[in-house]
Design brief:
CATH architecture of the largest domain: 3-Layer(aba) Sandwich
CATH class of the largest domain: Alpha Beta
Number of domains: 3
Order of helices and strands: HHHHHEHEEHE
Radius of gyration: 20 Å
CATH superfamily of the largest domain: Type I PLP-dependent aspartate aminotransferase-like (Major domain)
Structural class: alpha/beta
Distance between the termini: 52 Å
Oligomer: single chain
Shape: globular
Length: 185
């Protein structure tokens, strides 16, 4: 039996995977090993897990806190996030409005799935982390890239951003720190 794949799934692209194919070809042909920065695996780059985190994980597991957490996230973490926003940014957020995700990709998927409808536009910084663009397209939207200024530490070009906002714009993606540039706004 043939499995029919939806056009939505067939059209989904993940540029990082395409780059890896080209990099492996280059490695084979030229005999030079590229430094792969495409998958965020800190252990590959000698960034060990801090001892305090290992200890906290061990203690939590010993107390039986190693199962599923609530789907919106642990209340303690949501409260801490709300307190941090108030203290650091002066923003008063009800912890009930905070959702904890398993990384930024899941958060972006939730966000784009909630905001994007067929034909809507979402502004993303250039360069951008490829899944941002993929998720927008997956949900029927059109990613529109706004310029960031390399000479000024990759900050967004506000004039370019303003020019690209239309009546179809559903959102502007600003990631801080930016991925892949690392710029902090």
């Amino acid at each position: 039996m043939k499995l029919d794949i939806t056009s939505r799934a067939a059209d989904l692209r993940y540029a990082i995977r395409d780059i890896v194919v080209a990099a492996k070809e280059y490695e084979r042909e030229k005999g030079k090993k590229p430094l792969y920065l495409n998958i965020g695996d800190p252990l590959k780059y000698d960034w060990d897990t801090p001892d305090f985190m290992i200890k906290a994980l061990h203690e939590a597991s010993a107390k039986g806190r190693n199962g599923y957490s609530p789907s919106e996230g642990e209340d303690e973490l949501r409260n801490a996030a709300a307190e941090k926003e108030k203290r650091v940014n002066g923003i008063d957020i009800d912890p009930e409005r905070i959702i904890v995700t398993a990384g930024v990709s899941e958060a972006i998927q939730f966000l784009t799935g909630s905001l994007i409808s067929e034909g809507s536009e979402f502004l993303v910084p250039g360069p951008a982390y490829p899944p941002y663009i993929s998720f927008i397209g997956y949900f029927g939207g059109k990613p529109v890239t706004y310029r960031t200024i390399e000479e000024e530490g990759w900050i967004p070009d506000v004039d370019d951003l303003r020019e690209k906002v239309t009546d179809r714009t559903k959102g502007i993606l600003v990631i801080n720190p930016n991925n892949p540039t690392g710029a902090v706004y």
